[in-house]
Amino acid sequence: MSILRPSAKTVSNLMRMVGTSCSCPAHSARGATHVHHPGCSHRRASASTPRPEYAFEMATSTVRVGTGATQEIGMDLANLKSKRVMVFTDPNIAKLHPLKAVVESLERAKVNFTVFKDVRVEPSDKSFQDAIDAARKYNPDAIVAVGGGSTIDTAKAANLYTVFGDAHLLDFVNAPLGKGRPVDRPLLPLIAVPTTAGTGSECTGSAIFDLKEKGAKTGIADRALKPMLGIIDPLNTRSMPTQVRLASGLDVLCHAIESYTAIPYYMRGEAPANPLQRPAYQGSNPISDIWSSHALRMVAKALPRSVANPSDTEAQDTMTLAAAYAGIGFGNGGVHLMHGCSYGISGLNRSYYHPEYVSDHPLCPHGISVAVTSPAVAEFTGSMHPDRHLEIAQVLGADVTNAKRDDAGAILGDALRRFLKDLGVPNGISAFGYTSADIGALVDSILPQHRVLKLSPRQTGAEQIASILERSLTNY
Fold first, then answer.
1. Strand pairing of 142-147 and 190-194?
2. Integer Cα distance of 340 and 136 in angstroms
3. Per-residue pLDDT tens digits for 86-133
4. Which of 9, 76, 290, 433 is the most exposed place for a label (fewest CB within 10 A)?
5. 113, containing H or E segment
6. CA distance 77 to 197
7. What is the residue-averaged pLDDT of the chain?
8. Residue-level pLDDT at 215
9. Contact 312, 185 (CB under 8 A)
């Protein structure tokens, strides 16, 4: 089956498709490298072999975009006849405009609610469980998340485990760290009010956390987790410190790049026996490609401006949209090695505190931990999708006029290094205290990230991950 990439003229039609979308194996060799291509023998089906994947799905939240749109949330919940709303936020946002706007709207609409203010930035299994326990005790009929990706992901987990009141935390966590149980019944209405321009969590069905006993990040990924509504109100991002703006913006950048360069959906592996088992992260596909490639162009122009000038509200507003665009793209296409490596880098961090983040524990912001391996990852994946790698490099300012396709990975790697250096991103993972002696432990914490590693366009094992990490010790 040949599918042409849709033209830009179809974007408005795609938006309508997305708005009405359904709500409803992996690479395993350690150390071997394989470049996928249409003639790969492992893709050939026969009467005795399972059918390769042949379809992809598009699912996202409804989004409402507008300055001041937060004031409508009370009416939304009144329209749902909600009687017991639970609002999740973190201790910092609890003091700022976004939560105040939500509370005032709920009070105007005479909606009963309680506020849980103890969300942990970069959640852990314990902080997830604390939120779950509080939600089970309150027994809400609707949930609101006011904050960045940490808060929205925490609210998703609380929603899931309130509905499945007898489930253990690991029941729905992605295999092999968890049981990977599918969500087979509807969850409570969840409205997400993002206060950062980065994670795109308001559009996705993923919830990420640190699994402390394993020293790695993992998560839950199921379309059922996606919010019913995401309210994208630029006023809610005005209070972001510069470093939060940087880190969250880098997450958008990498979401776009990874989704656009992921293994094509039809090369991911076997088609599921039941569509309920089709993963949320499916691989690059013609619809995700549009959202991701456009988000990339928005970030390349707006992120440097947003970081350089806190008063540049036009750039900030562009980044809020870019986050949602990339969220729609990667929420269906997926991410791969940059995110896979980041889970080990942040999960094993024991001493690094990033500036301008208020935290009582060592913290390497997610977007920073993702971005620092992006040059080395691009160099590794460049042999697959070389034209796309060159396209991304050009968007980031590289001159590709006489570029050779064989050099695509190196060219994009260099373009990313320049882009990150100009933004003042820490110089590789050594900036977080890691040395070559830590590579083995990092690899061990990254290898279980099957959900994302299997979307790499090149087969990836311990040897390849170690090489990426070594090349990422310093970037400039």
1. parallel
2. 31
3. 999 999 999 999 999 999 999 999 999 999 999 999 999 999 999 999
4. 9
5. strand 113-116
6. 24
7. 90
8. 77
9. no
